[in-house]
């Protein structure tokens, strides 16, 4: 019998039959999959068995370690400052990384943000930044290190060397219905963050209609697993569970989210974006041992904005250039007067995606100017005949499907809804 | 989004989340998989979800119908005789098809046996017959029909046209740990038997250490599902649950099993082989409306042997030629006197396989002369120093691993074991 295949089947059978995988089984299967010795159809069967039968904590820890071992590890210990990073599980209008990274850097902690591009209804940080004229996402490790020392913050594309096993497995899970497994989500996120070499980490675990995790129980479980993984690996890790039933801020798109982020850095911007940015900054500073600094001060005194501009310029972007504007717009008018009682994050996210702000496949381009602006948030009064949404795209044929996504995603009523907290819980 | 992939994920998610698949989902996924539009890694994830979450009866019926629809259907309605077939889920020393097909034909019912080759510890009917000098397994549909009319029985290789979806799926399940799912086993077997066009069918569902199904509950469940599938498709179907904790007869191999089958056709042979052959023949005759004939008579009067010789000759074999003999043999001696209390089917099957009687991969050759002969069955007295097993192979290097397989697979004690029935139950 072909020995490697025989072993792959053994590992699949063990998990299928509800057993714990041994350390050596995990090490072997992750390594053999990365090398192409375990076939995609075998790994997808294993992923489904993991999704349905679960994994114990020590299996997840070992799986994460095996994914880290599949590639290179970065090391920022030679920097003159401590490091801290943030990861969000993905939400609609979630531009928080943009103001957060320069804000934390302005507080004296270096932020090495390796980011990704968007897929589906949640946007990608790199897609947003690429709407800034000239800005480039790809940096060498040396460029990244130099920028961290000189500017204090860098947001760039993760190189191919970090956790290649995860890259391969993530693409497979995407087409085989095996994305929503907590052991696989947690190990995917944490393998990259641990390999990245950050000293402290805060996880923004989103909960609600526009998030991956629809209920608090599963979101808390994911947060606990990830915090344990980070802590075990020597990364000071905490997590905030934050609400994603309503989209963040007033914009979902690319250039329009950059503009909103710049408002926040200028001391203004939507209250929820400011609140979450400051809350996450406090966690990162505490993790890096700098909880003596109040990040709110650094927004008020303009120092976060200074770091932002330096950060954009260091990656060949022009922070003062005009941002791209969509060629076409369509305004949705409030049909009655009252209070906006509901605004569904998923409806808005799908609309922005269908307008061209996001992509369906990895290789698709995105439109810099596309997206959705909403002119009220739940609890705000609206007047019949005034604009409720502005839809933006370069291709007017996209309006119909975007409008269909928004349909049923909002309500106007007589009374203000009960306000729900943005930060639901803290883990770690 | 790529529409076909999107649909594959939809189907996977439905089964993953414990929902029933709709008729159109089943039709689509089986057809798209056959055409290569659904990828192997998607089908293996779906197979694992089916294995762990199960399928309702009507889903299995529809899945089976979709597999039948993936290829051609045969039609024996123009024959002058009714047809009946048998399928065994696979056991050690299971040569029953060899005496059974000519026996039933001698009773006036045509037997169109499309068989397979062996994989792993259970032998294959075609491998056994190919040890007869000159015999060929491949027939055209016209040759098969002519032989059924003239001889009344044919055992040949299933063509590629029958249920190609099953062929593809079976190979996938084999390497992805998804073989042991009752819905997939039942639909795999029954799609081929229904497409084959037999009028009646008896299923020999093996139970015990040497079988696929280790316990009676699961074997009965499989039998019930298959009987329902056959009945719904208009095939008069019954099933016998039969014991496979002990191997059948006194031989496991290829030529040695042919020789044992010829003994049965000559009116002798081991009692258990005779018992099971006659029991299955009665089921087939009843299904074909010929329960007025007693198959035991046709063994006694030599008419089954006549059909056997005609059947072998019709496929270019010489029924009177000497069968191949292994070049090397090794005898295991009884260490003490007493009664053989246990003989494990799996141990014997693995030993025969390791001696070269079976194959590890589809493309491997088998040795015609290799196998295991046991000189006692449980309950038989044995004498210290007399032969207990004879191991046969062309390659003496194989003896060590075969002996290791047998080790612990048998016991000699002072008292005879409690006899267990060969036919455990009947379903249908």
Radius of gyration of chain A: 22 Å
As for the CATH topology of the largest domain in chain A, it is Pyrimidine Nucleoside Phosphorylase, Chain A, domain 2
- Beta fraction of the residues of chain A? 15-25%
Query: Strand order, biggest sheet of chain A?
Result: 1-4-5-13
Structural domains of chain A: how many: 3
Mean residue pLDDT of chain A? 94
Which structural category do the helix and sheet elements of chain A fall into?
Answer: alpha/beta
The residue ranges of chain A in which pLDDT falls below 50 over 5 or more consecutive positions are 1-6
Q: Give the CATH superfamily of the largest domain in chain A.
A: Nucleoside phosphorylase/phosphoribosyltransferase catalytic domain
CATH class category name of the largest domain in chain A: Alpha Beta
Could you give a short account of the major beta sheet of chain A?
4 strands, mixed
Looking at the overall shape, the CATH architecture of the largest domain in chain A is 3-Layer(aba) Sandwich
Terminal CA distance of chain A: 48 Å
Oligomer classification: homodimer
Number of helices of chain A: 16
How many strand segments of chain A? 13
